[in-house]
Design a protein that fits this description.
A: 98 residues; mainly alpha; elongated; B: 7 strands
Amino acid sequence: MLRKIFILIFTFVGLTFAFERNITLSEYLEEAQKALKIAYENGAHVKAQYEYGKALGYYNIAKEQASDFQTEKAIEAAKKSIEWSLKAIEKTTAGAER
Amino acid sequence: MKKIALSLLTLSIIISPSFSQTGKINISDLENRLNKLKEMHALECSPVEVGKVESYLESLKHEVEKDRNGEEDIYISPTNYLQSLDKAGKNEGKKDKSYMLQPKKKSDIDYVIVINNLLSQIEKNIYSDKDKDGIPCYKEVELGLNPNIPDKREEKVIAKEENKQQEIPNQVVETKENKPSQQNQEENPLNQPVRIHFYFNRADIKKEYLPYLNIVAKYMKTHQNVKIKIVGYTDNIGSKSYNQKLALKRAQAVKNYLVKLGVNPSRIVIEGVGKSDYIVSNSKELDRFTNRRAEFYIIKLSE
């Protein structure tokens, strides 16, 4: 009986931990995707092609790592993707102002 | 039996280290390949792919550095992190500069495949002619031209042509439309520099140019006051007289095709220039291909 209770508690803790981690990862992926979308809508695929390419590359890496359950690496790649999307947006908007 | 077992054992010992060595991925090699392509103006000709490759290479390098520091893949506790920093500090002096990755996961190998595909895509884009003006992308960047906008030939060559135009009798006025109006440019297919390229020592028209020739023929049929002059050129291989004939043959081949489509032959003038008026130097095969061409010029009848 005691063993069953322990197993239940451990699985619950494990599941909630995994669930929380997954939420953060999916949020990061979602943010990276949103940033890419905004960059594309601003015309980064034409005006800031290199930066947009980097953002795309990191987003693909994030997705691949996520499918391999490499949570930390996926989050890291997603962060870099967001960073490069922002750089691409910055470049396109700066070009538009000139 | 014992001998066989012994020989197998020694064989396995000999083979195993080399096998493990070949199983490694050399990131430096991939990086060198990218750097060489960058020297060929990969950043200008294929920026998206360069960005992608760099992101993949950076993440692979990050893996190697993690391997060197002996870091855990998923979670690093604060004590482990401090230990890894300490290790990194100790190894700093004797750091190996080549990046060799022992693939542990399928994704590592997938990355290398993706990188190789992207590198060959970059290579293709460097040699491609996006604006269809006959000059490959890397060459246009070298010449300081925009690879996305069709360019006219170098000013020197244009000046030569202008001189030639002055020599032609008054009844017919040749004009190479250098700065046509925006509206006119859209309507007239001959206002853009038209070039048809040929294979080495051949005068037959490549299939990919036929749709454009069809447009030209259509334009000629609807604009009866327009005459065209087709000039054939060659590369620098072969004798002058042979190239002269080959250049004329190329111009003749284009004329024949237009006549076949219903254009009056009297409205087409041909000329073979041969070994002169090169667009680019003849140092590489691709450059020679660029020079082997036939070009169109508009001749408008004077009013």
